[in-house]
Amino acid sequence: ANYGPNPICKGCLSCSKDNGCIRCQHKLFFFLRREGMRQYGECLHSCPSGYYGLRTPDMNRCSRCRIENCDSCFSRDFCTKCKTGFYSHRGRCFRGCPAGFAALEELMECVEGCEVGQWSEWGTCSRNNKTCGFKWGLETRTRQIVKKPAKDTIPCPTIAESRRCKMAMRHCPGGEYRRRPAKTKDKKKKKKNLMERAQKQHSIFLATDKTSQ
């Protein structure tokens, strides 16, 4: 039936004035639209957002996507486009990408990120390529890149880090000490000045004592 200019019956094989399309032409999808308490059928070339086209021998239908935050889907359980603010990953929608995957902002998809191995043990505490002669030094640990990211624009996490450490031997074997030439000279000079001052004061004391006698 065709009710003339009534747009609700466009593409229908059978149509009701009250309920709209009941059956659609072979290539079209039947979509049951709801508006408040009212619902009516439409025949569409493609299903609206949140639905996917399900083809059956009886009649093609628009079925609702059952995936949370999905805008359009390929099947009931596989989303092809997520709603704004969500990333698509293996047919699902996420606020943030799962571990091991990185967000590709331009496509709002999660792609394989940079995979790194386990941290090595902390290395030897050293300073200026020496493992003795200082109180404090640095120790370093590293890890390897196991798998490079799918996109060159996705950065890898740090593969080396250092921390402050206390050296096991402050004095090197063979009597090599941490040397501070400037401070050592200053100490010797101060000691010499003190000795000279003490001797001068002692001489003055002796001279004064003889005069008084």
In short:
With 213 residues, the chain is an alpha+beta fold. The protein has 1 helix and 16 strands. Strands 1-2 form a two-stranded antiparallel ribbon. Strands 3-4 form a two-stranded antiparallel ribbon. It has a two-stranded antiparallel sheet with strand order 5-6.
Q: What is the count of β-strands?
A: 16
Q: Unreliable segments (pLDDT under 50, ≥5 consecutive)?
A: none
Strand order of the largest sheet: 1-2
Number of domains: 3
Major β-sheet annotation? 2 strands, antiparallel
- What integer value in Å does the Rg equal? 42 Å
Q: Could you estimate the helical fraction of the residues in percent?
A: 10-25%
Q: Which structural class fits the helix and strand makeup?
A: alpha+beta
Structure report:
It is a single chain. With 213 residues, this protein is an alpha+beta fold. It has three domains: 7-62, Hormone Receptor, Insulin-like Growth Factor Receptor 1, Chain A, domain 2 (Hormone Receptor, Insulin-like Growth Factor Receptor 1, Chain A domain 2), CATH 2.10.220; 76-111, no CATH class; 114-170 and 183-209, no CATH class. Helices cover 15% and strands 36% of the residues. It is built from one helix and 16 strands. The chain has one helix at 181-212; strands at residues 12-16, 20-24, 29-35, 38-44, 51-54, 61-64, 70-75, 78-82, 87-89, 92-94, 101-104, 109-112, 115-116, 136-142, 145-147, 160-166. The protein has a two-stranded antiparallel ribbon. A hairpin with a 3-residue loop joins strand 1 and strand 2. The longest helix has 32 residues, at 181-212. It starts with 11 loop residues before the first strand and ends with a helix. The mean pLDDT is 80.
